[in-house]
Design goal:
- The complex is a heterotrimer of chains A (475), B (253) and C (471).
- Chain A is α+β, with helices and mostly antiparallel strands.
- Chain A has 20 helices and 14 strands.
- In chain A, β8 and β9 form a beta hairpin.
- Chain B has 253 residues and is an alpha+beta fold.
- In chain B, strands 6-5-4-3-2-1-13-12-11-10-9-8-7 form a 13-stranded antiparallel sheet.
- In chain B, β9 and β10 form a beta hairpin.
- Chain C has 471 residues and is α+β, with helices and mostly antiparallel strands.
- Chain C has a domain of 196 residues.
- Chain C is built from 19 helices and 15 strands.
- Chain C has a six-stranded mixed β-barrel.
- In chain C, a hairpin with a 5-residue loop joins β8 and β9.
- In chain C, α2 runs antiparallel to α14 and α16 runs antiparallel to α18.
- Classes of the chains: A alpha+beta (475), B alpha+beta (253), C alpha+beta (471).
- Chains in contact: A-B, A-C, B-C.
- Chains A and C meet through α2, α15 and α18 of A and α2, α9, α14 and α17 of C.
Chain lengths: 475, 253, 471
């Protein structure tokens, strides 16, 4: 009954109510959107890590990941895989063998983590294969006589597999991109030169061009000079299970580009059988089982099940595998709430102001109600209810508007190109897709209600203090 | 009749010899040169290695025992700071013994990628066993004179499956003695990565060999490694046990 | 009476409304100032920490060293350089370093490691590594003893088993992880010390003792007191080889580093690498760390350092950190921006309401002959006064809070605190003292108030008395 009255009261002064509601709507919308952006950044990082790097759950021998000791093998890999796949909630499993070694080209060498994979299964768990740079190959799709290796762009640059080359084709590309002739002519003396590294190339370009030209066209020139020969050679050297040095020649079957530079630099993927052949690891053994589950939130639960099934092995879920990811998600969640509270606190002033005016305006009416015996509690509740309704309407509309905005931007994303390099090195992408969890919306709604309630206290108390006789006398 | 047959036979024989000399295929030439270079069952040698860099230069002296092309023991004899270190190569593995720390360490691949003793010789050169004969296809592309030696100029193209990091090589091989006079090593894009030259050809222990070998990495300015062979003995009887970890600690000049 | 006096009277007549509107301005100013202060303070603190503890602001290096970190790219550290550097007015101390790589070996295991040759005393001006020396370890033997000891509850024993093998830099961490209240330290530490203590002493110039990361210690199966064997390539290709007694183990937060780091006195490193009196870098500890001061110092010294060496600044050495800083700053400004939008709408909303409410009052005034312009002017004054009131109040209240916060930063507790400590951050909320940003925020709020004037002024100037009177 009171609620109905309160609701009607809200709409008695349409324009005033609308003003407050609008400011709440805008506040909520802005707040949610900002939170959405932050979540989006985070989600992206988490998704990338899960879909490209670690997936949800990993099982290996205890201490295997401390030093990648080749001897810490898991037996009966097929049986293991089947048992895992039979667990509820598991979507797919892939098995890997790992070893550290050296990758060599004619000019450079560097330490790498060599990962032996089964391409068919990998594709069910990871989407790394979809990150191949166009024209560099096709993951492990082709059947070839030679050994294939799939590496990251940063590693390809490090080993000078990606070269920077100024030749006529590159100049043509620059012309197509509308780089001014003046700039191009400064590059012409270098035609035919190949640069061993990006740094060497950049330094030469910076010397040849003016600062402005470098700033404007630097990255276009870099991109155009990017050159890669398909099926370039690479040798991988490592020790087999008897500690004897071994290795083989591989050809690049694709270069992948993900946001995480460190991941790109460190990992080389080859076929599992090849790695096992070279190292002497028996075909029915493996180092790691990597598991993708259908619902990320069940990670802990399923990990528990798997641990019970395989007590001799170490089973870990993604939060354990990447504690900094876990910490980040945790902190951002807390921060979002704090941010929202601050916004609501700012909005509450508007609400208090409005409710005060409401109370003062209706002094006569309220006075009368009290005079005829409406008890104070009900008056209080009515004021509070009005306040809550005001806030709720504003909040709900704000939520709806943000939901619409989120739907829009969910597909296109928002671009933050300038801070790109720093973000990429940290493993973030510079294209951000805002997201909000449904729980957050619920939290917002609850907070809005609470704000409404708290803001009404002062005005409500004021209403209660009205002396009925005074009230009746007011004009 | 008999005289004609005889004459024709002789003619053929003579021509035959001529023909075979001229028709030695590129592959066979490489095989011969390779055999000469690597073919000895065993040997003991004393060499100096000079490492040249733009701002410094260093010389190391060592004595080396080799057997069967897959076992080698090297003892550093100079300078004083390096003296006494030994390196043992068995197949694909390399150990090092350092008297300063009295430790025997198995060298992991990462150690070798820096170049042995700071030189331009890498892991690839010392431990890898790619075959010049088996891993390449060969073609004679000319004849050239280098110094006072007339050489076959042979292009070796790496077979697609071969485990070699080079794309192709050009080798100048002395026509008379099948010595490697000069080699140019190219990567798959056709850029010259390394040049090796053999000079100062002398007779040692009855055989003709280049006693000075220069290795130049073309992509680094001012870098060079020079090996000079001071003495070499071939076909020495070295027992298997010589190439052991215990011996690494004991071996002296 | 002047318009402003009239405005003032209006305000005092309706104190409540005045105060509430002023309050929303006050709130805006207060929150914006405090939030910005915390943001700037935190960024500054975090990035300063990262930069100061490792690269410092300026370093002297061989020209090519930063892009090609080999031992051959070291430079001669003679008395002339030392003098040139120390004589500079902005340089307080010189912190020498010799960094390179090596192989570490123990039994059958070899591993590539990073060697940090430092001056232990001077290095502590940048970061106190000695705090990272592990003092306790829950070895299997220690856990056995704890299990037998009746003084320890089941819960503590379980925790001990959970953390088997872990190292601890200080007793607080040990107690916390075992689930023992820190207040009970006096009761439990005397029991735990004999079981869990491990040796951890200093490294010093002249002494070949080294510190190694706990990860490396575990891999090579080394304890304090054991010997670390190192072999690698030294200066100009010479062989570097040596044996070093382990003086202590470093418990570091990043496990990748922990597994491959060795700290040794730099003179010992020089002997190991055969570099003679050379270094890979000298960190300059400055008096004044302002951007300006750093640039000036760099320019001055660049001219006087020997050929083949150069002064590198922190921006070059911390590219990634800087971009992260900028990204953070942008997101911080974005958040404040959002706050302003919210507040702006709040102020405008309030003004809208007031205008609507006072329509009748305005109508009456205009009807009895007040010029519209005059009325508009009075109302504008009202708003400006309210705005001023709110702004001044906001500024006045935030100043002491900010100043207090600068002197006594808020200390965090719990999980986040631990995390921050591991990464060498003190778990505190840092404020940025009153600065340019302060004026900026005030200006922005001022502008918002002025913008909010537009509507009432327009409404007044276009008022139709008849309609207004009917309100």
């Amino acid at each position: 009954m009171i609620l109905l009255t309160a609701w009607k009261n809200v709409w008695r002064n349409k324009s005033r109510s609308l003003v407050v509601i609008t400011s709440i709507t805008i506040g909520i919308f802005a707040g949610i959107f900002a939170v959405g952006l932050m979540n989006g950044t985070m989600e992206q990082r988490v998704d990338a890590a899960l879909n490209q790097e670690i997936s949800h759950i990993q099982i290996n021998q205890k201490e295997f990941t401390d030093n990648y000791n080749i001897k810490l093998l898991i037996d009966n890999k097929n049986q293991l895989k089947q048992m895992i796949n039979n667990v509820d909630g598991v979507e797919a499993t892939t098995l890997r063998t790992l070893i550290t070694g050296i990758a060599n080209t004619a000019t450079k060498s560097t330490g790498v983590q060599i990962i032996g994979v089964n391409p068919e299964n990998e594709k069910q768990v990871f989407n790394l294969h979809s990150k191949t740079i166009a024209g560099t190959g096709s993951y492990f799709e082709k059947e070839t006589r030679y050994n294939q290796a799939y590496i990251g762009e940063e590693l390809a640059k490090e080993l000078n597999i990606i070269r920077y080359r100024i030749d006529n084709k590159m100049i043509d590309r620059l012309r197509k991109q509308e780089v001014p002739e003046e700039t191009i002519s400064k590059l012409e003396p270098f035609i035919g030169e190949r640069f061993p590294s990006q740094k060497a190339f950049s330094r030469t370009i910076e010397k040849a061009l003016s600062e402005k030209e470098t700033a404007n066209y630097g990255h276009i020139i870099l991109d155009a000079a990017w050159s890669f020969r398909e099926r370039s050679k690479l040798t991988l050297t490592f020790v087999d299970k008897n500690n004897i040095q071994t290795g083989a020649m591989f050809r690049i079957s694709g270069i992948f580009d993900v946001s995480n530079s460190m991941f790109e630099k460190r990992n080389v993927f080859i076929r599992n059988e090849v790695l096992k052949n070279l190292t002497g690891i028996e075909p029915d053994k493996t180092h790691q089982a990597i598991i993708k589950i259908a619902d990320r939130d069940q990670s802990k639960e399923i990990t528990g099940k798997l641990e019970a099934m395989f007590p001799d092995y170490q089973t870990r879920h993604w939060k354990e595998l990447s504690p900094d990811l876990a910490m980040m998600t945790g902190m951002i969640e807390k921060f979002n709430i704090v941010f929202l509270i601050i916004i609501l606190a700012a909005l509450s002033f508007g609400i208090i102001n409005t409710m005060l005016m409401v109370v003062l305006e209706r002094t006569k009416e309220l006075g009368m109600l009290t005079a005829i015996g409406m008890n104070k509690r009900r008056v209080f509740s009515m004021i509070m209810a009005e306040s809550v309704f005001l806030s709720l309407v504003g909040g709900v509309v704000g939520i709806i508007v943000s939901k619409i905005m989120l739907l829009f931007t969910a597909n296109t994303g928002i671009n933050f190109a300038s801070a790109a390099q720093g973000l990429e090195e940290m493993g973030f992408s510079s294209h951000i897709y805002p997201t909000i969890s449904n729980t957050f919306f619920i939290t917002v709604t609850i907070l809005v209600i609470i704000t409404g309630m708290l803001s009404s206290i002062y005005p409500a108390i004021k209403a209660l203090r009205l002396d009925p006789s005074d009230a009746l006398r007011t004009e | 009749m008999k005289k004609l047959t005889y004459a024709i036979t002789v003619l053929f024989l003579v021509m035959g010899i001529q023909i075979s000399a001229q028709d030695l295929t590129a592959k066979e030439i490489i095989e011969k040169a390779d055999d000469k270079f690597n073919g000895e069952k065993s040997g003991i040698s004393e060499m100096t290695m000079t490492i040249v860099r733009p701002s410094w230069q260093r010389t190391v002296e060592f004595k080396s025992w080799n057997k069967d092309n897959d076992k080698a023991l090297t003892l550093i004899t100079a300078p004083a700071g390096e003296k006494g270190q030994t390196f043992l190569k068995r197949g694909n593995e390399m150990w090092s013994w350092n008297p300063t720390i009295s430790r025997l360490i198995k060298l992991p691949p990462s150690m070798m990628s820096q170049g042995w003793m700071g030189s331009d010789y890498t892991n690839d050169d010392i431990l890898k066993e790619s075959s010049m004969v088996k891993d390449y296809t060969h073609k004679i592309i000319g004849t050239e004179k280098i110094g006072d030696r007339v050489c076959y100029k042979i292009k070796m193209t790496a077979k697609p499956d071969a485990a070699v990091i080079w794309g192709h090589q050009i080798r100048w091989i002395d026509k008379n003695d099948y010595l490697f006079i000069k080699s140019e090593l190219y990567d798959e894009d056709g850029y010259l990565i390394r040049t090796e030259t053999g000079s100062d050809i002398q007779k040692m222990d009855g055989r003709l060999i280049p006693t000075r070998i220069e290795l130049v990495p073309e992509e680094e300015e001012g870098h060079k490694t020079i090996i000079e062979i001071k003495s070499i003995e071939f076909n020495v009887n070295i027992p298997e046990q010589f190439f052991s970890q215990q011996n690494m600690k004991r071996v002296r000049q | 009476m002047t318009n402003s006096k009239l405005a003032w009277r209006n305000l005092s007549r309706n104190k409540r409304r005045t105060l509430i509107t002023a309050a929303s301005v006050f709130f805006a100013v207060f929150f914006a100032l405090v939030m910005r202060s915390i943001q700037l303070g935190s960024y500054d603190y975090m990035y300063k920490n990262v930069i100061e503890s490792y690269s410092g602001y300026l370093q002297l290096q061989q020209t090519d060293w930063w892009y090609e970190k080999t031992i051959n790219n070291s430079f001669e550290y003679d008395s002339e350089i030392r003098e040139t550097l120390t004589n500079d007015e902005n340089v307080l101390e010189l912190i020498p370093r010799l960094e390179s790589f090596s192989l570490a070996s123990s039994g059958a295991n070899t591993k590539g490691v990073m060697i940090m040759g430092i001056d232990p005393v001077k290095e502590s001006l940048l970061s106190d590594i000695s705090k990272k020396v592990a003092k306790y370890q829950l070895t299997p033997e220690a856990i056995e003893k704890i299990t037998i000891d009746e003084n320890f509850s089941e819960k503590i024993i379980k925790n001990a088993e959970l953390f088997e093998g872990n190292y601890f830099n200080n007793k607080e961490r040990l107690l916390t992880d075992l689930g023992i209240n820190i207040d009970d330290a006096d009761k439990y530490m005397p029991l735990l010390e004999p079981y869990c203590s491990i040796e951890g002493s200093q490294i010093e110039l002249g002494d070949p003792g080294v510190w190694i990361g706990t990860g490396l210690a575990d891999y090579l199966l080394l304890n304090p007191g054991d010997t670390l064997v190192l072999m690698g390539q030294g200066y100009h290709g010479t062989t570097a080889a040596g044996k070093f007694p382990v003086r202590g183990l470093l418990e570091l937060p990043v496990s990748e580093i922990s597994g491959r780091i060795v700290y040794m006195p730099y003179d010992i490193a020089q002997q190991f690498y055969n570099t003679g009196n050379q270094l890979t870098s000298v960190v300059l500890h400055l008096k004044n760390n302002d951007d300006r001061a750093i640039e000036d110092t760099k320019e001055r010294l660049d001219d006087s350092v020997p050929p083949k060496t150069r002064i590198t600044d922190w921006k070059e050495m911390n590219e990634v950190v800087i971009q992260q800083m900028e990204a953070d700053n942008v997101s911080g400004m974005f958040m404040i921006g959002i706050l302003y939008i919210v507040i702006a709408f709040g102020i405008i909303g309030t003004v809208l309401m007031m205008t609507a409410e006072r329509k009748r009052e305005f109508g009456v005034l205009v009807a009895i002959g007040m010029q519209k312009k005059k009325l508009a002017s009075i109302i504008s004054y009202e708003m400006i006064f309210i705005g001023l009131l709110g702004v001044i109040a906001g500024a006045l209240v935030s100043i002491p809070i900010i100043l207090y916060g600068v002197e006594h930063p808020l200390i965090f507790k719990g999980e986040i605190a631990h995390m921050m400590e591991e990464y060498d951050f003190e778990p505190k909320l840092v404020f940025e003292s009153i600065n340019l940003y302060f004026i900026w925020q005030l200006l922005v709020v001022g502008i918002m108030v002025l913008i909010s004037l537009i509507h009432p002024v327009r409404k007044i100037l276009n008022i139709k008395v008849v309609n207004a009177l009917r309100a």
